[in-house]
Amino acid sequence: MEILRISAFSDGDTGGNPAGVVIEAQLPDADEMQKIAHDVGFSETAFATPYEGGYRVRYFSPESEVPFCGHATIALGAALARKEGNGVFQLKLNEAEISVEGSSNGDLIMASLQSPPTKSEPAEPALVDEALALFGYSYDDLDMRMPPAIAQAGATHLILTLQERHRLAAMDYDLDAGRALMKKAGLVTISLIYVETNQLFHARNAFASGGVLEDPATGAAAAALAGYLRDLGWSHEGEIDVIQGEDMGAKSILKAEFSQEPGSAIKVSGFARLM
Fold first, then answer.
1. 246: left (phi > 0), else alpha (psi -120 to 50), else beta?
2. Homologous superfamily of 119-264
3. Which option is the CATH number for 4-114: 2.30.29.30, 3.30.70.260, 2.40.50.140, 3.10.310.10?
4. Is-contact 79 94, C-beta < 8 A?
């Protein structure tokens, strides 16, 4: 079995979020995929097999299966472009059908995905209280132009927006406590955001639910953020850029493009590089 290692949403030929990619004629059983993902050790590994003219895809973190992973989808798009040539590939996930486009240019590959539908709602105050306590923040740290929210685009995220960039840089928390909170609340990540401009955001994503302290790039969370901004009526001109991983030394760049239609798919794009 060949396991590709591809860094998605890279900053040119550096940074990005590593993902494992396995493309096989038949998917292994769930226990075997879980073991492989654990052994690979990246925040997610995508497993794909040909299916009805496209691919059936499942995603596993080192500790659990997740319904959708943006950076692993970008990595899969890069792998498929290398395998089949440039094109658009239809993907059937556990709970949605999406697509990914891959376009190769030497060692760097540009890929873009169309996310599952989006939705958002205000976060319950009790959950916000627990999350703030987890990170050592207070309500005074929050930028209430973007109130705390639960946002979805194939996976569920809590979004907390901070007023000051240095508070984002100082993010820290206990992994076990974070895992317990995310499991209880049904969260895949907690997404911490700083707004530089209406179209440029800095993000850090705690991923304790998958056994990973932090993701350097989270395409699903970028899609969920874009959907939330649309729901808010934020002035975004149809696209945003998200810089993530910078405080980890793995700068990643994600672009999200979207229409005004509520709930519609978000196009999330970035570079990918072979590791």
1. alpha
2. Diaminopimelate Epimerase; Chain A, domain 1 (3.10.310.10)
3. 3.10.310.10
4. no
Q: What pTM value is reported for the model? A: 0.90
Please give the DSSP secondary-structure letter assigned to residue 185. Answer: H
- Give the chain's count of helices (H) and strands (E): 6, 17
Dump pLDDT digits (tens) for 199-247: 999 999 999 998 889 999 999 999 999 999 999 999 989 999 999 999 9
Determine the Cα–Cα distance for residues 221 and 244; give it in Å rounded to an integer.
Answer: 11
Q: Read off the pLDDT band of 12 (50, 70, 90).
A: confident
Q: The tokens of 237 are what? A: 């001109």
- Give φ, ψ of 5 to 5 degrees: -120, 115
